[in-house]
Write a structure and sequence with these properties.
The chain is 34% helix and 20% strand. The chain is an alpha/beta fold. Strands 3-9-7-8-6-4-5 form a 7-stranded mixed sheet, covered by helices on one side. It has a 4-stranded parallel sheet with strand order 10-11-15-16. A 3-stranded antiparallel sheet has the order 13-12-14, with no helix packed on it. It is elongated. Zinc ion is lined by residues 272, 289, 291, 327, 330, 332-333.
Length: 364
């Protein structure tokens, strides 16, 4: 496995290398079309750039150029011109030309200029020289993303911002955050403060130790040896805005109806009742109780806050690995199934995840 891990990046690096004569072009991911010419362009210091792009913070463009790069209004004087050309074409596509006199990037939209700059950044050598080249490029796949499981392994806001920098350097555009699971609820929800107060901290830092050896115990925020954390709504706004400036959509994921022990620790009344224990003494279970209408009130309120924070057209709602064991014996679940004529817990899960009913309740 380790050998495969070594070989795969090596192959990717080889594929991204393009050589003509003495000029070697290394760009990752490999652009669609590269034409190398003779000569190099030496970047001046300080480097100047100009752009006709509107509605974008030009400091983001400057941050991709060598230190001290300054914006100028004169295209004639600029070393790098970034031009939205208003032509038809994919928004993420761009045309990059490096001659011995200057550098130009053209694109139909700011995304293309951004990705053209990311390519340029990889072309600038340590001596400030750039090989003369023409690159025509556009994205092969519309969804280019990574998922970070911040529930099992919590990462700080600053770490996530750093990941956004790294993602955008490789032209990735979707960041999926696994925000909730048994291991910790990571998002401040104003209408349910116990989710983070009682559901975001645990007794061991390492997830495997906590899950397999440490009894899966939760801690309250501020308790000694409480490991974990969460993003405040202000943190999320900062992450989402930073991602937007880097043309990355943040997709939030919240788990339902299973993988929710941390919610049951904070709000046990949202789990099933069973015949053996009262609600007060029942141990936290993984699944929400579909027989309890308060569960849908909970999700309506939580998802409203999430929808207000994340402009993503998608919210991932988990749906995996629902054991549904308690549903079989829970008086509320059984009553609901009897009342509506459901034959089994499969139908009960369909009731939890209908394609239309609750979505209309939530957002209609
Ligand atoms: Zn139930």
């Amino acid at each position: 496995m380790n050998r495969i891990r070594t070989i795969v990046p090596a192959i990717v690096l080889l594929c991204s290398s393009y050589t003509t004569g003495a000029q070697v072009i290394n760009v990752l991911p490999r652009p669609a079309c590269i034409t190398v010419q003779q000569g190099t362009y030496h970047t001046p210091s300080p480097l100047t750039f100009c752009t006709n792009a509107r509605g974008i913070d030009s400091r983001v463009f400057a941050s991709l150029l060598p230190d001290g790069a300054k914006r100028t209004r004169s295209a004639r004087k600029a070393a790098v011109t970034l031009t939205i050309n208003h032509k038809q074409g994919p928004a993420e596509g761009y045309l990059l030309r490096v001659t011995q006199n200057n550098v130009s990037i053209e694109a139909p939209a700011a995304e293309g200029l951004f990705y053209g700059l990311q390519t340029l950044r990889q072309l600038i050598g340590p001596d400030g020289n750039i090989p003369c080249v023409s690159i025509a490029d556009s994205a092969r796949f519309p969804y280019r993303g990574i998922m970070i499981d911040v529930s099992r392994h919590f990462f700080s806001k600053d770490f996530i911002l750093k990941q956004i920098d790294a993602m955008s350097a490789f032209k990735l555009n979707r960041l999926h955050l696994h925000l909730t699971d048994a291991a910790g609820w990571r998002l401040q929800i104003n209408s349910y403060p116990l989710l983070t107060r009682k559901g975001a901290f645990r007794s061991s830092k390492g997830w495997k130790k906590w899950w397999f050896d440490d009894g899966r115990r939760y801690k309250t925020e501020g308790e000694p040896d409480a490991f974990g954390g969460y993003y405040t709504q202000a943190d999320i706004r900062e992450i989402v805005d930073y991602a937007r400036q880097h043309f990355i959509t943040v997709i939030p994921e919240v788990e339902m109806p299973a993988h929710s022990e941390e919610v049951m620790n904070a709000y046990p009344q949202l789990g099933c009742l069973n015949a053996d224990s009262t609600m007060e003494t029942a141990k936290p279970r993984a699944d929400f109780c579909p027989g309890n209408e308060d569960v849908f009130v909970f999700w309506r309120n939580v998802l409203k806050e999430i929808a207000a924070l994340f402009p993503s057209p998608y919210i991932h709602i988990g749906g995996d690995e629902a054991a549904r064991t308690a549903w079989r014996t829970c008086p509320r679940c059984k009553a609901l199934m009897q009342r509506t004529g459901m034959k089994d817990v499969d139908e009960l899960q369909s009731y939890f995840h209908p394609p239309h009913r609750h979505h209309r309740q939530l957002f209609g």
